[in-house]
Amino acid sequence: MERQEYGILALLASVLVVSGLVFADIAPHVADYIVLIAGAAGLIAAIVHRDAILAARQWWMLLLALVLLALTLPFVYRGSADVLPILALAPFLVVPGVAYLLTRNQTLLRPFALPLLCLFGAVAAVLLGLSEYIATGGARVEVGNNPIHYGGIAVLLGFMALTGICVGRSPWRVLFFLGPIAGMLAAVLSGSRGPLLGGMAMAVASMPMLIFWYRRDWALLLAIAVMVLGVPALALTFGSSMRAMTAFGELTQVAQNALAGSTGTAAAVDVASAAPPDAIRVAMYKSALQQFLDSPIFGQGFGQILDLARAASPGFPEMATLEHLHSDIADFAALGGLFGLLAYGLIIAAPLANLHFGNAKPTDRVVALGSAMLATGYLLLGLTNAMFGVLPQTVLFVLLLGYLIALRRNADSLSTPPH
Questions:
Q1: Where are the alpha helices (DSSP H) in 191-321?
Q2: Over 80: is that where the pLDDT of 62 sits?
């Protein structure tokens, strides 16, 4: 590769990560377009140079997920709307392009670069959120997005910043605990229960790895304990204190109906005791379960799932404005049946393919913790809202996964002795 081309790709990588991470929550759509354009350029360059990044198993897992969704089309297709899920997940195609660009800029692959950028993004989100909260007199904060998406992205960035404590031995690395705090404060400002639930889950999921790695570092263990206890306390003390718990309630009600063998329509759900918007969510999730049971192999097709949900719940005129069933699992199960759930499982598991057990170098720990946070965050945040298929969240997943692939490749190349 010529030096000029290398420099252009390195510059493009810098623009990509700064836009996609620092501005993911405060200018989401601008950041999305920059990431997609840069990722496409990186993909073309990787193909031209036949780079080994194209063989990344994480990317092939995503491609297999797209193939599984495509295989359902002959059985469910009734119109162009049924193709929308595949088009909405098309950003997955540029994952190796993102990774390839990052490998052209070694500065960005230093272990502290990812957590710093994520920390800047989370802190910027909460500062602008506080400004908006004050200016609007206490309205739900959205900062150029909508509240639940703003809160979800901030939580993801905040917990990805937590990977910074895996770098070096400086006592100042405890500052990276500000990431989860900033993310959860943004979730509180958004007034959205899904981000609160997701943040609580990521705090708990990070604990075993951090305690195992730093079991002899008492100062860091204390900071970990404060985070694990403080994040749920923050979520349950401020704002609508029990909103995260109502998400569990909605999902539990649907699960109880399923275990009890109830296969009636969503209209049959006792929603009288649930206050909106909880009742409408229970109705959506129950409808998704019924649609899956009616067509468990290939699903109903995306073009049909909302019409079926509305028909099953005539008491909820608000459903006329819905664009999805407000849960990734519900959406994938209803539109694709078992094929859809397999596709969803592959997407969620893709970050975990980065894991190399037994390694203790800073980069290995950054990759391991970051992969766990990415998979856990999208799984839990996706329980009560759509994540995949919504452009800002989908592109953030693409960028973070591409970054982790590049970090993993860089760590492997540095640890491989020359021949």
A1: 193-213, 218-237, 243-259, 278-294, 302-312
A2: yes
